Amino acid sequence: xxxxxxxxxxxRGNPGPGGWACVLITEYxxxxxxxxxxxxxxxxxxxxxxxxxxxxxxxxRMELSGALxxxxxVSSKEYxxxxxxDTNSLPTTHYPLVTSVEVCTDSQYVxxxxxxxxxxWIKRGWKGSTKKPVLNQDLWEALKKEEDRLKxxxxxxxxxxxxxxxxxxxxxxxxxIATMCADLPRRKAGDVNDLQLYRGPKRDYAI
Length: 207
Description:
single chain; alpha/beta; Nucleotidyltransferase, domain 5; 5 helices
């Protein structure tokens, strides 16, 4: 099973109020559907929308947060278990194992950070090429931790750059959610829940 995550971030001022978003899509091959249903797995494609906000943040931090929350959602699922796990201990109804996760972001900062820069930062003690401290180290470390958690469970993690505002529907949807979150009043309990983000079968999802 493959999971694709579209992420985005927004801020009103830099720094200023900000919002993050991610849209996760689970996809199964026909072979997986046929074989896994016989084993008692739930194999219906699913869409999950997530969003959140901070009162004072930056656009880059919100871009990172969208990706981070997307990977955390994958890691929290019952279907992310090591290939060495005892399948007899899994719940009666559970999901097939994830084989790959693709994170689609319109931020070159996030994409290049995770695919080109982060190993060098770690080797230099979280210093950039100019020896200055890396900004947003806390989020980079958390993102790397989630990526490593998935990889250690046998999941292939890929990062893809998607140009923003270029007509990619799920990227556009992530942008809308992030913007709505950024535009919410100062944080109150239930604010984000009031947005009624979607979580359910892909067949019923319309954007």
